Amino acid sequence: MTEVSSLTGRLLVATPALADPNFDRAVVLLLDHDDEGSLGVVLNRPTPVTVGDVLASWADLAGEPGVVFQGGPVSLDAALGIAVIPGDEGPLGWRRVHGAIGVVDLETPPELLGPALGSLRIFAGYAGWGPGQLEAELGDGAWYVVDSEPGDASSPTPETLWRQVLRRQRGELAMVATYPDDPSLN
Question: Taking 60 as the threshold, does the pLDDT of residue 96 lie above it?
Answer without folding.
Answer: yes
